[in-house]
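Quick question: what would this complex look like in 3D?
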Amino acid sequence: MDLTLHVWRQKNSKDAGKMETIEAKGISENASFLEMLDTVNENLQKNGKEPIAFDHDCREGICGSCSLVINGEPHGPEYGTTSCQLHMRSFKSGQNIFIEPWRAKAFPVLKDLVVDRSAFDRIQQAGGFISVNTGSPQDANSIPVPKQDADKAFDAAVCIGCGACVAACKNASPMLFMSAKVSQLSLLPQGKPERERRVLAMVDQMKKEGFGNCTNQYECEAACPKEISVEHIARMNREYFRAALREETPKEGHGGE
Amino acid sequence: MKLCDRLFNSSVGAKMLMAVTGLMLTGFVLAHLSGNLLIFAGAEKFNAYAAGLKSLGALLWVARLGLLGAFVLHVYLAVKLTAENRSARPVKYAHEATIQASFASRYMIHTGLMMAAFIAFHLAHYTFRWTDPSFASLPEGDIYAMVIAGFSSPAVSGFYVLAMLALSFHLCHGVSSVFQTLGLYHGNLNPMTEKLGPIVATIVFVGFSSIPLAVLAGLVK
Ligand code: HEM
Ligand code: FES
């Protein structure tokens, strides 16, 4: 199949950047989207041109590296699919395809389609952790976890932190990502000691990073390659209100609450 | 107080204040609508209702100040949050796409600002009676006659109907959105809360628009 690509090209974080039109000819419809870009890059290099920079690693939908906005939709048109797992048969020969980086002030472009997502790491570091004692592990069944809670926590834990929710959101808000972390950790007994501190600190950090606010339009849920539900955002809102009501967040080592 | 700081200055807290003030305003809108529909019961009932409201005295002022506070907070936070949202994406997509966000949800600040403009006109029109000189010659306390005189102008009536369209779009997203913001998203509740916005929006649009349209059609005179 033959395609006309419109790709964001930007030399480095200082460069203004612009869209560039590139013809991609003779692409197999069995190729993945990233393999299509590999083919385009080989041709660009053969002609002495700079290849298109894009993030990728596992290429099997589990690492969260790939990050392309394809015709305005993060990870392209297939629901619940990462860019690396998207196949060219989802497109028609002769089609125009726009390929852009995640767009958010908090995710500055480093080069072409590669953005700096360390804002997510800082949100995670602000509260997305649990305290564990070192030493030998306790018996696996010594802490009972209700099945329902375990299931909900697992639904949230499938988040791969790719940032598609931010890219899709009209306000570049990371609420789906944050709520997945808050849900995963707060639903389980292991996450209870930091329950209040976690949500307060993460929501604070989100603002410091320059992300936008949620307006309940659910674009994130539609774009999420792991099909994470906005139900988690509601849970995070509840968690936030509960934590905000408690003037002092519990201190470590003082007998808990 | 930490709680105030967390509500006013955090993203999630500010949204909760928007939701609560939005609900207060929606409550007022529905109460106002049910009062206004008494116009179809005739001049006597309608004027008696208006006089009854006036006789509440201090209580009326408490309600008015409460509403004003909710309105000011709602608009202030709306403008602030929207400005933050715009600046969170300085470079737009060359190819914009919307996957599932509703039309109403994408124009909340626009329909909201239209409401602010409408409310200013509405107060000048029927509360302070600055805009229509013909109101001066009407008997004192005859609110019924004033409404009929006001809506006899197709331009004024048309403007009211348009404003109610904007309000109904605002509520279509807003009322359903409140549940998510306040953390009340729940599998069993959702089929109802998702419909509540469109239902309230329809009631508000049909209910309010019926008054100027009935006056223009000569059904209420
Ligand atoms: C009759 C007057 C109004 C009523 C009844 C009303 C009602 C509501 C409700 C119920 C919400 C949903 C709250 C939430 O879930 O976050 C809302 C949100 C909002 N309103 Fe209003 N509002 C009114 C006036 C205004 C005005 C004058 C403005 C603008 C200056 C405005 C701007 C907004 C914005 C930007 C949102 C947030 C939308 C979102 O988060 O999706 N509203 N309003
Ligand atoms: S490359 Fe790992 S998820 Fe796509």
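Answer marked as accepted. Chain A has eight helices and seven strands.
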